[in-house]
Amino acid sequence: MTRRGEIDLSPLAAINFRNNLSMTSTILHYGPSGRLALDVPADRLVASCGLPASPPLADVAQATAASLAAPLDYPPLPQLVVPGDKVCVALADGVPQAAAVVRVVIDRLLAAGVPPHDITLIRGSAASLPGATDGPAGVFEAGGAKVHVLTHDPADRKRLSYLAASVEGKPIYMNRALADADLVIPIGCQRLDAALGYFGLNSGLFPTFSDAKNLERYRAPLTAQSPVQLRRMRQEADQVSWLLGVHFLVQVVPAGDDGVLAVLAGRTSAVDRVASERCLDAWKSSVPWRASLVVAALSGPASEQTWLNFARAMAAALRVVEEGGVIAVCSDLQEAAGPAVRWLASTESPDTALREIVRERPVDALAAAQLVDAVSRSRVYLLSGLPPGVVEDLGLTPIDGAEQLQRLAAQQPSWILLANAQYAIAMPEGEEDAVSQTPSDRPRAKYE
User: Fold this and answer.
1) What residues form DSSP beta bridges with 264?
2) Which of 26, 41, 93, 203 is the most buried (most CB within 10 A)?
3) What distance, in Å, lies between the first and last C-alpha atoms of the chain?
4) Is it true that domain 11-52+285-433 has CATH number 3.90.226.30?
């Protein structure tokens, strides 16, 4: 027997559920290869979201080469360099199929006459780049040549250069490799405007490659909840891109499961427009009403199974779950907890931990703040690779597979299934927010 507010996870609950309802089966993918086979009652399923209508690209390298040969509103890549130019390719965090995209960009630079020693590849501190070696002598091979690889360290002041003051008078420091380059080619991952921790396509440069203090500002939990602050930070990222002389970039539209829907290259404003439209078409959806249960799946390889993406999945689920409802996040999360999450686990008062998070703004501040919000508004269950004790210390309930998830779902009158929840955002019909924005809806950029 369960207490009020608890879910009965006994096998009998699921048996009675199946006997009383007609079922259809669905497969929910999570992690690198996880699959959950769920029996879904047709009369309780409100919506199934997060599966783009367009298939992922069959050949990401070929698509990258095509986009560089015919950029949007910009000359082809060979026309952007002259002999002696120092080129810096800047890979942001979270880019799917990053190695394939980067390899083609470098190959085209080499074909344009830029020697390997004049090309530097810098990646964000959390960027995954298979094939790259780390350390002072790190290299990445492309086009038969090896180029130097740097991993950005926001605490290494020797590798930072003062760029300018922002419009609000804050000093802007950027990685010296970017400041010293004659040509900077950013490679980023497109997300919906409302995605947690996303500040527009130029945020692949700033604050990604800035100093620790600026990164802390962008991790402030209150900023993520303020449309005014979000707009200012987006404009600041645009300003830094302009100060670096960046007018050309490469942007990847994700497909989920480490796939790619599109690779776009060209003028910043043109890429922003097309990438935003593609992202809205793929990842924004409407549901007729909120559900008592939202099952949110976190797809993709280990590099996608992060606390930030877990927080994005919870944020997406909160948009469509009833107040006081149930959220079940299915993941292969095994990443070690950061300082903010550890504070949550070690205190019995989430409010006390949240005050510390707001003051200190550690690297996982946004994830921890989102976790506090989710637990305060719903019951959260988690399928992950974390020890059950760690999950319970965070105020979550661990689940261990499809059978237990089915028993959890059996007692809920309405369901929403949300695949690829680190990218997808669904909204109940009639509710509006920044998720529906396109570049034409935003305040006009000052920096083009």
Assistant:
1) 251
2) 203
3) 63
4) yes
